[in-house]
Amino acid sequence: MNPAVLETTNIGLQHRHDHGDHDMGGGDSCTSSHAMTFHAGVCQEILFNGWMTTTALELFGSAVAIFLAAVLYEGLKYYREALHTRATTATGDSQVNITKNECGNQGACGGTAIVKYSMLSSGHIIQTLLHIVQSTASYILMLVFMTYNVWLCIALILGLAVGYFFFGWRKSTVVDVTEHCQ
């Protein structure tokens, strides 16, 4: 065989992940190796070294925590929209600048009002801080899903579904423009 081909083959083998050394069935030999396929094992490192499950009870507790985090994430998305809706219906608020359309000062026209926050208004600062929290939470939940543990993925999906069930019916729009993973 050509030495250049052999060297390329060996380099390719060096970069393969070996995930056969850890017990995903709940035995005593848990390692911190990351599985790259969906699995239903009990041994799971979640997000960082200190969060390692080795028993079914630990995995269940982690799944409950992830479920609750997903419900709260949906609640945060609703809360941001509710704050924005409240700001659009507020009249006379000096922090919100509602632009006037062609009607001038005669009163309300049939058109919709466009709400613009000034950059340093309290409403915009609060929305910015909540956006940071929402973005961070969405990426953390994505990383939890990327553990590929079936039980954690199910807990996350169910948490998002329950959160939407509790908060989504109150939303004024069907399309979620604040979602980062669309």
Quickly list its features.
182 residues; 4 strands; transmembrane helix
Write the topology of this structure.
Blueprint: H1 3-14, E1 44-45, E2 52-53, H2 56-89, E3 96-99, E4 114-117, H3 122-145, H4 150-167
Antiparallel strand pairs: 1-2, 3-4
Helix pairs in contact: 2-3, 2-4
InterPro entries: Cop_transporter
Subcellular location: Membrane
Organism: Parnassius mnemosyne (clouded apollo)
- How is the main sheet built? 2 strands, antiparallel
- What's the N-to-C terminus distance? 48 Å
The SS-based structural class is mainly alpha
Number of strands: 4
Account of the protein in words:
By secondary structure, the chain is mostly helical. The protein has helices spanning 3-14, 56-89, 122-145, 150-167, and strands at residues 44-45, 52-53, 96-99, 114-117. It is built from four helices and four strands, in the order αββαββαα. The strands form two sheets. Strands 1-2 form a two-stranded antiparallel ribbon. It has a two-stranded antiparallel ribbon with strand order 3-4. The relative contact order is 0.16. Residues 6-27 and 92-98 have low confidence and may be disordered. One of its GO terms (cellular component) is membrane. Belongs to the copper transporter (Ctr) (TC 1.A.56) family. SLC31A subfamily. It is a multi-pass membrane protein.
